[in-house]
Specification:
The protein is mostly helical. It is built from 5 helices and 3 strands. It has helices spanning about 5-30, 35-80, 85-170, 175-185, 205-215, and strands spanning about 190-195, 195-200, 225-230. Strands 2-1-3 form a 3-stranded mixed β-sheet. Bound molecules: zinc ion.
Length: about 230
Amino acid sequence: MSLAEQLYKLQQFDLELQRSRQELNDVETRLSDDRALVDAESRLAAQREQLEDTRKKQKNAEWELEDLQEKVKRISSKLYSGTTKDSKELVNLEKEVKGLKNQIGPKEDALLGLMSQVEEIEAKVKTAGEEIEQLKREWKQRQETLGQRKSEVETLLAKLEDDRNRLRQQIEPGALNTYERLRLTRGQAVVKVERGKCQGCHITVPTSQWQKAKAGDLIQCTSCSKILYLE
Ligand SMILES: [Zn+2]
């Protein structure tokens, strides 16, 4: 294998490593991304709190209504028992019963309103609970798929690193330095020469240059400085 070919292969390993590391990074990010589930759970918690609150209000309204009906019953029985003879007191009791009875209707309406609110929120809580179960199933499935992909990429990375290091050991340090420097400054270090042109900058490479490159010498393009490689 010529020096240029070694460096070209090294570059392919480096690019592949870069892609695989990026993929590993993405997979790990997705593995830890549970925002959808966390958001759904916090929405459910808020709905449960609202349900609790509305149920309390319903209970209170029921007690108030019972209380009111109890009072009406008590005063009515006092009114009609015949124990009270004083007409002024009787008139007052009648007024009181009437006043209390007037409160019953609105209280009943309010109670009905609260009951239907409770039903509505219960339905929401049920739906949210089902959504969470669904999200959990999806999450579990995704964790499995991503976990599998993660270990595949890790295996690939280990192999790539191994192959790359073995190749590096065969390349002379001076050439490696040039390669690393070009990668840092130009992004790409080795380019092919196709139909006599440098594929880095598309300038025609002098025949003497590409012949030397083909023979295995480390030749850099006079225009873009990249290492020339001929298959
Ligand atoms: Zn060039």
